[in-house]
From TrEMBL:
Residues 240-406 form the DUF418 domain. Keywords: Membrane, Transmembrane, Transmembrane helix. It comes from Ruania alkalisoli. This is DUF418 domain-containing protein. Pfam families: DUF418. Signal peptide: none annotated. The keyword Mitochondrion does not apply. The chain crosses the membrane at residues 25-44, 64-90, 116-149, 156-181, 216-239, 260-282, 294-315, 342-362, 368-387.
């Protein structure tokens, strides 16, 4: 088959009438939570914990903000994003196949899309944000599509269970070993794996670019592949998308309600040890508190699934009630343009908070940076609402689609 005949069988991206509300609504809310999760990494003017970017001190309000974010947001949002990313892969694949495209042509689209996501992520990391996840998901997407896209449902569930089981066993072994871990002063004084003071506190922009480029590949591979959470969520998303659970929530209401209750409960309970340790309720040395990042990670799988179910049920209720008001439309619009809004957050936060920019990260506390996160998301939502009213695509989505679909 020639290149021209292959491309002739490929249809364009989804139209507005083809999009389900639940994924876009979930992405829109998710971006607010991403802003809340990422902005603490810009605080470089005070000491942070070994296992997070949150400052170790602060007012009562600051401690409440830290507790809530660690419990309900940290390590819960990127699994949610991974699920929606995997779900979108199957939606794209099914839409193209139903339109008559060949398997080869659709896989070519997905490969181009994921390779370009890696490029987008590298540029994003170099210019603004070392913690970029776009490139990490592009990398995982290449692997998961090549190995699992056409596998049987049973294979997807078995592998998701295996990966979750590995994380669970590692977590349990860590918890058992926790009381016996000896103190290591050199480790406790060395800071965490990522030091906000070194990255966000760098005043020379070109030097900060080099620091981000040196850090991002490790985070992309570690969070995207080695951490196992993202591949697990994508496997579950492949299974769910084949059943169109987010498109038809009424037919799967019982599953969604159970997932919402169990997932959110496990996510919150799993985040409590880390949160209580950070605010000083549990007195542990930094070398021991690292163990609770494992509980944070494995329970993030359940928390992410729970949030997906909650947003899906909420979307169904809003649609049935006809409550598609301005705020709901704005959040949906943000979700439809999630890549542009995600990159837009860095355009706002990095120059505002980093030392090479205005440098507010040296003076803000947890509550202050959370307020900036909410304000930044709100500004982007207002701009995106105007894009929706005018029928414009997000600039990043438009570019990626042109590159992927040629």
């Amino acid at each position: 088959m020639t290149a021209s005949s292959t491309s002739a069988l490929v249809r364009g991206p989804s139209t507005a009438t083809e999009r389900a509300l639940a994924p876009d609504l979930a992405r829109g809310f998710m971006l607010l939570l991403i802003a809340l999760a990422n902005t603490p990494w810009y605080l470089y003017g005070q000491a942070s914990g070994m296992t997070s970017a949150h400052p170790i001190d602060g007012s009562v309000v600051d401690r409440i903000v830290q507790f809530v974010l660690i419990t309900a947001v940290d390590a819960r949002i990127y699994p949610l994003f991974a699920f929606l990313f995997g779900y979108g892969i199957v939606q794209l694949y099914r839409r193209q196949i139903e339109a008559g495209a060949t398997e080869q042509a659709v896989r070519a689209i997905l490969r181009r899309r994921h390779w370009w996501m890696i490029v987008f992520g590298a540029v994003h990391a170099a210019l603004l944000w070392f913690g970029d996840i776009v490139g990490a998901y592009g990398l995982v997407g290449l692997i998961m599509v090549a190995i699992f896209l056409r596998r049987m449902d049973r294979t997807l569930i078995v592998w998701a269970a295996v990966l979750t089981g590995i994380l669970t066993v590692i977590t349990l072994l860590g918890l058992v070993a926790l009381p016996f871990i000896p103190a290591d002063p050199a480790f406790e004084q060395g800071g965490g794996f990522v030091d906000p003071a070194a990255l966000s506190g760098e005043e020379d922009y070109l030097a900060s670019v080099l620091l981000r480029l040196a850090t991002w590949p490790l985070i992309a591979i570690g969070q995207g592949i080695i951490g196992l959470v993202v591949p697990t969520m994508i496997l579950l998303a492949f299974w769910a998308a084949r059943r169109q659970i987010l498109e038809d929530p009424r037919a799967h209401a019982r599953l969604l309600r159970r997932t919402a209750v169990i997932g959110v409960a496990v996510g919150v309970v799993g985040g409590l040890p880390n949160a209580l340790t950070h605010v000083g309720v549990f007195e542990l040395g930094p070398h021991q508190s690292w163990i609770f990042t494992l509980t944070q990670s494995v329970t993030g799988i359940f928390g992410g699934l729970g949030y997906v179910a909650v947003f899906t049920l909420l979307a169904d209720r809003l649609q049935r009630a006809g409550a598609m008001s301005g705020p709901v439309v704005a959040i949906k619009a943000v979700g439809k343009r999630s890549l542009s809004n995600y990159l837009g957050q860095s355009v706002i936060f990095a120059p505002l908070l980093s030392a090479w920019g205005i440098g507010l990260g040296a003076d803000l506390n947890s509550a202050g940076v959370a307020a900036i996160a909410v304000a930044g998301w709100t500004v982007l939502a207002a701009v995106t609402y105007l894009y929706e009213r005018r029928g414009w695509r997000g600039p990043a989505e438009g570019l990626l689609r042109r590159l992927a679909y040629r």
